Structure formats: C-alpha cells, structure tokens
Amino acid sequence: MSSRLARSAGVISIATMGSRLLGVAREAALARIFGASAGPAMDAFNVAFRVPNLVRDLFAEGAMTAAFVPTFSRTLNNSGRDAAWRLGNLVINALLLVTVVLSLLGIVFAAPITSLITTGDLTSWPLQLLGFDVPPQPGFANVEGKLELTTRLTQIMMPFLTTVAVAVAMMGMLNSLGRFFVPALSPAMFNVVTILACFTLVPAMPWFGLPEIAGIAIATVLGGIAQIAVQWPTLRREGFRYRPTLDFRDPDVREILRLMGPGTLGLAAVQINVLVNTSLAATQQEGAVSWLQFAFRLMYLPIGLFGVSIATASLPDLSRHAAETDKAAMRGTISNALRMMLMLNVPATIGLIVLARPIIELVLEHGRFTAHDSAATAAALMCYAPGLLGYSAVKIASPSFYALGNSRTPVMVSVASVLLNLVLNLGLVQILGFRGLALGTAIAAMFNAIVLLALLSRRIDGLDMSRVLVTFVKVLAASIVMGAAAYFSEDWLHLQLPGAEWYWRAIRVFSSIGVGVVVLLISARLLGLAELKEAMNRVVRRVARR
Closest Cα to residue 138, out of 124, 155, 158, 157? Predict the structure, then answer.
C-alpha cells in the first residue's frame, strides 16, 4: 500500500511539478510586464481573479474531488463503465447549468462584488454587527480608475467558472480510472496560455481600446478551455462520450451535490482566508495585494508538488477502506501520507523562510518588479511559510472525513478556522501591516489541520501519532541544520559573487539549495530517519534494475 501510494504520488508530483513551475514562470512574466506597485494593473487583476480563482481552487483540489471521485469509483466498480459514463455526463451537465448561471450573475453584479472586496466592507461588517466601531478604510475607489478596472476584469473572467468545472469533472473521472498524469498536467495549459498571452494578447489590447492587463483576463478564460482540451483525448480513449443528459433526481447525482455543498465549505478555509486577506490588503499601500499574491504562489509550489499529490494518490485507498469499514487500513494509509508529507514539506518550509529574499530576487525581480517589491514579497513569503504544513495536512485530513461519509466535521472546523483567521488578521494587520495577513493565514491553517487530525484520530481509533511525531521531530531537527547551512552558504556566496545579474543570482540560490540538500541528507541519515532510508533504497533499486 505504501509503495503504491508513493508511486501514484510520484506520478502526480511529476506532472504537478511541471504545472507549478510553469505557474511560477507565469508570475515572473506578469511581474516583469506589470510589476507590483508600479501601477494599478496587477492589484486590479489579482482582486478580479479572486472570485473565479476561489471557485477553481475549491473545485480542483477540494469538494469536487472529495465528493465525485468516491461516488464515480463506486459506480465504476459496482455497475461498470457504461453506468459510470452516464454519471459523468449527468454531473458535467449539472455543473454546466449551475456555473453558467453563476457566471451570468457574476457579470451582472461584478461592480458591487468588487466594491465589497476592495473597500474593506467584506471584513468590517461582521464586526459592526457585533457592535464594534470600525473606522472607514481606504480602498481601490480612492485610486482613480482602479475600481472600474477591477470590475471590468472580473466581468471578463467570470466564464472561467464554467470551464474549470468541466475540467475538474474530467479530472475526477480520469483519477478514478487510475489516470493521474494528464489530469495533474492539465493546469499547466492554463499557465502556458497566460505566458503566451503576455507576448501576444497584451501588446494587442490597446488596438481595441482596452488596457493591456485585459489580455491576461482573456487568457484566463482561454486557459480554462485549454484544460478541457488536454484531457479530452485521454478520456475519450477510455470510452467516454459526451451526452447532453440531465437528471437531478438521479441518486448518485444527488449524493454528489449533497456532499459538495458542505464539502465546499469544509475544504474552503484556505481560500476564504485568502479572500479575507485580499480584502484587507486592498486597504493597505499600493502593491500589497500583489505582494501577497506573488508570495502565496511561491509558497503554494510545494503544496502542489507534495501536499496535493499525496492527498490525491491516497484518496482512492481511503475511499475503499472506508467502504470496507477497515479502520486499521485507513490508519495505515493516513499515517503513511502524513509522514511522507512531513518528510517533504518541513524542509520546504525552512528553505522558504531562510532563502525567501534571494529566491524572489531570482524569480521575480525583473522589468517593472523592483527591489522594494522583492523585499515586501519576501516578508510575506516568510510569514506564509509556517502554514505550509497546515495546508498540506488539511488536504489529507478533510477527504478522509468525506470518505467516512462525514461532511459536518470539516465544515465546523473550517468555519472556526475562517473566524480565527479574521480575528487574527484584523489584529495583526494593525501591528505588521500586510505581513500580518500572511502570518494570520498561516496560523489559521495550522489550527485547521491540528483540530481535524485530532477529531479524525478519535473517529478511527488513532492515527499512529507517536510514529508521526517522531518523524516530525527528526525531520524538523534535520531541516533546521539544513536551513542554517543554506542561509550561511548564500550569505558567503553573496560576498564572493555580489553581481545582480540573473546568472549570479541563480548560482547563489542553487548552490545554497544544493548545500542544504546535502546537509539534510547527512543529518537525516545520522538521525536514522526511516522514511528517508526507504525512499533512497527505492531509488537505488530502480536505478539498479535499469
């Protein structure tokens, strides 16, 4: 089971790595052309994209997967492919209907939605209802044309909801069939389209009387279509044929929709917290929204590589064990997933903290993205990084509850996490500015994960936590030594190779990472970290066979 989980997670990680790296390249291209604090374009785009992107993240890595994959897998195993294809068609058509309506509503009401987010009203009205006196906050409306630009971009991007809903339904079907690579790679097409748009659509926008950033908004919708196109051939080869059928009375469809309702909220804590951050950041100085967005994208790279891939690979096993009421097998799967996640994400967290500034200078500090933007983004990244473990653990814990048929617990914990994030951010933003928003989100993510794991442990009579904690302590100790080595290596190299050109920065960053990895391997070996030994033995055996 552990070996199969590792292989599946490895396949997903390879595809996801390409997608996430292209995502970083996409951010680098946007930073070069539009900067962060050089004008209103990047802030306006990030706020406008927040609503459709919220739905994308929930569907792509959340409720749709948790609700659809177990039901589709059960139908596939019990009733055969024809019944499974019928269910797939019913779900796709139901999603089309719902998301088209939501997109139209979003277009019509784009102005009040963007105004709500960018004026601070989104976070101030709950406190006002409780009787607190909240002074008015500066918002996008105070910058000439910024709110209007945000509204226009929101209207352009709303159809992205429909494209991503269909793409994720296809992803769920392929995952249920054991096809992980193409679905994990499909988000890369979104990034590819955006990168191409930077050099094609963006320069052409003034010819049509539109701002340059509108080209990126158009590319967002085209990128959603590309995610569908890249999965379609593989799904068709498996035997799927689209049929325009719709039946909300179908018991499987109703079960999926029933799980998706609370499931969306149950897995939404991170994204709702980011929405809260966006609203509060809009009341800060020019560029704050973009600094947080760039930092979150870089922090989300290891989540996509390790957290999502491990969770996606473990979900079919969790669903099967839950259906068989095999708690021991569930404990084993969850324990393996958690320990694998810690082995990868603890070093990533420490690495992001100690190398935040040089990494951002290498990746983003070009064109209109200034040294001031790098310093601000690095500060946000350092505050986001501690939440990396929380984000990844939630992606393992929440689907475990849904596999058990319990959607209520993740919902309650998610709501508590969102409320905690709101309280923390309202306080920390007064002390640390936009950096407090990142730190508050990280603390809330850790709270979400700890509570979910504690409740899950009670539900399945334990989680082998003693073994997980031992792994965590060992990995943390090795990672701290690694972080110190990487930090001092970069500092020494900066004295020896002080050039600001990209190649000098690349030499410093990758050399420091290389030193850190070597020190991590040595430290882990000295500490007798079993998970690392297992991974190294598997690599050696694979190389020997080849």
Answer: 124
To the nearest 10°, report the CA torsion of 118, 107, 26, 202.
Answer: -100
Beta strands in 345-427 (DSSP E): none
Cα 139 to chain centroid distance, Å, stands at 26
Q: Contact, 421 vs 276, CB < 8 A? A: yes
Q: What is the reported pLDDT for 393?
A: 86
- Dihedral of CA 116/119/124/128: which sign? negative
CA 461 – CA 335 distance, rounded (Å): 13
Tell me the two tokens of residue 331: 């404990």
pLDDT in tens, 418-455: 888 888 888 888 888 889 999 998 999 899 899 998 88
Give the chain's residues under pLDDT 70: 1-17, 38, 55-66, 120-139, 141, 259-274, 303-326, 407, 530-546
Do the Cβ atoms of 458 and 316 come closer than 8 Å?
no
Spatial neighbors of 112 by CB under 8 A, at least 6 apart, are none
pLDDT at 330: 75
pTM of this prediction? 0.77
218 vs 200: CA distance, rounded Å: 12
Locus of tokens 């393996």: 336
Burial of 329 (0-12, 13-18, 19+ CB in 10 A): middle
- Could you say which DSSP state residue 306 is in? I
How confident is the model at residue 411, as a pLDDT? 77
Please report, for residues 91, 111, 220, 245, 398, the alpha-carbon distance to residue 97 in angstroms, rounded to integers and kept in the order given: 10, 23, 21, 11, 27
Helix residue ranges per DSSP H, 177-213: 181-199, 201-204
Q: What is the distance, to the nearest Å, from the Cα of residue 280 to the centroid of all Cα atoms in its chain?
A: 20
Q: Which of 323, 251, 282, 220 is nearest to 90 (CA)?
A: 251
SS3 for 21? helix
DSSP 118-169: HTSHHHHHHHHHTT--------GGGSTTHHHHHHHHHHHHTTHHHHHHHHHH
Q: Nearest 5°: phi and psi at 369?
A: -90, 110
Measured in residues, the chain has a length of 546
Instruction: Give CA 86 to chain center in angstroms.
Output: 30
Rounded Cα–Cα distance for residues 103 and 296 (Å): 26
Q: What is the residue extent of each domain of the chain?
A: 2-463, 464-546
**Is residue 370 within a helix (H) or strand (E), and if so which, with residue range?**
none
* Cα distance between residue 304 and residue 297, in whole Å: 10
pLDDT of 418 reads 82
Say how far apart CA 186 and CA 20 lie, in whole Å: 11
